[in-house]
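FORM 12-B: Structure-to-Sequence Request
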């Protein structure tokens, strides 16, 4: 299942839901909760598509498609791996505990996810896959915009408690 890669929905959902705990601004904490929950729904969508595409494959189709190595380990179960076959790992979460670092990470993550969907759209010709992938791609763009708004809000709230504004240990 492709959605278990470093730019997939599972990592995004857990990243945002983890970051919310150290986010000092309630409005941004709420945004992280909302987008993290939505990303879990996207993971479910991808899982459903993968299941629908693989559940009735014949042995010949499995071999011809290159799905055989995955099939040996997981049959047709939805198991989060990258397109390369690398299993999902918690290192994909990237939660730092600093509002600006985390928001910049999230902006980059949404763009990388959008590019992943762009690449899928380049390879797929099935309208039953294209339409939901386009929808997911559009949501990545909306999330990017929302994280941009959150970054502006966090930047406006910088004060002596935030190392980006002033850190007496470093700045004299």
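FORM 12-B RESPONSE
SEQUENCE OUT:
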């Amino acid at each position: 299942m492709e959605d278990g890669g470093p730019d997939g929905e599972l990592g995004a959902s857990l990243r945002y839901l983890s970051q919310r705990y150290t986010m000092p601004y309630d409005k941004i904490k709420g945004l992280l909760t909302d987008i993290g929950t939505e990303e879990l729904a996207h993971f479910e969508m991808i899982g459903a598509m993968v299941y629908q595409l693989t559940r009735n494959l014949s042995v010949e189709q499995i071999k011809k498609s290159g799905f055989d190595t995955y099939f040996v380990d997981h049959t047709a179960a939805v198991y989060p791996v990258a397109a390369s076959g690398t299993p999902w790992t918690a290192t994909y979460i990237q939660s730092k505990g600093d509002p600006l670092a985390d928001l910049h990470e999230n902006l980059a993550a949404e763009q990388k996810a959008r590019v992943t969907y762009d690449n899928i759209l380049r390879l797929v010709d099935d309208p039953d896959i294209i339409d939901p992938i386009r929808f997911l791609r559009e949501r990545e763009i909306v999330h990017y915009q929302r994280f941009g708004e959150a970054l502006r809000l966090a930047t406006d709230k910088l004060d002596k408690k935030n190392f980006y504004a002033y850190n007496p240990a470093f700045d004299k």
